[in-house]
Amino acid sequence: MIKVPRNGLAKGPDGELRCFWGVSAPDYVEYHDREWGFPVADDRRLFEKLCLEGFQSGLSWLTILRKREAFRRAFAGFDPARVVRFGARDVTRLLGDAGIVRHRGKIESTINNAARALEIIAERGSLAAYVWGFVPAAGERPRIVTRAALRTMTQTPTSVALSKDLKRRGWTYVGPTTVYAFMQAMGLVDDHLEGCVIRRAAEAARPGGVPADRQVVRRA
User: Does the active-site annotation cover 61?
Assistant: First the structure.
């Protein structure tokens, strides 16, 4: 069992300190190091993450992460233009797919949200242009991210605003806590703990972090 220091950091396989959760299971190490907190501007990945965060509701992210490839196969790579065409037969097919979370409401939500995503793309040019318009204002979050700060920060004024606007547009399973988890994962905020070996690279990769020719961008 990994002992968790008061600062929320633990040594990874290379001996470097990371956010504790990022080394709490083998599946998490690469996800923490190469994905979580790094900026994403690809519409499919943004749509996928919003949907998977909805599926996570009531479950752990580790459960969803381990099923992610099955989800991708089941939902046509989370291409909203394909998912929006899913009908009753597809819902029945998905309810019989043991590789994913078989929850009718969440499956139907994903199909609904594909239509809503296409509406945003038609209006704003891309889903990325829309969600990146909700980057938190300076001062909304502490400059130094600690375990204590994150424990009480399950949502923010910006995640509430994004959640409210998505719901206004007809999206479902997008509460403010779900949306904040999406923002953390997709790099709209960098919540790697102070002292985490990945924090500097994640922060630098965000728009405005450092000049483009010095940015460190990690791709999944």
Answer: yes
Report the C-alpha gap between 191 and 179 in whole angstroms: 14
* pTM recorded for the entire structure: 0.87
Q: Which of 31, 36, 130, 173 is catalytic?
A: 31
Q: Which of 21, 28, 36, 61 is catalytic?
A: 61
Instruction: Provide CB contacts within 8 A for 134, sequence distance 6+.
Output: 158, 161, 162, 165, 183, 188
What digits encode the pLDDT tens for the residues 149-161? 555 568 999 999 9
Q: Which of 36, 15, 34, 10 is nearest to 192 (CA)?
A: 36
pLDDT tens for each residue of 11-53: 999 999 999 999 999 999 999 999 999 999 999 999 999 999 9
Calculate the average pLDDT of the chain: 88
- Asked about 171 being catalytic, the answer comes back as no
Which of 28, 53, 173, 180 does the annotation list as catalytic? Answer: 53
Buried b (16+ CB within 10 A) or exposed e, 58-72: eeebeebbebbeebb
Could you tell me which residues come within 8 angstroms of residue 98 by beta carbon, excluding any fewer than 6 positions away?
Answer: none
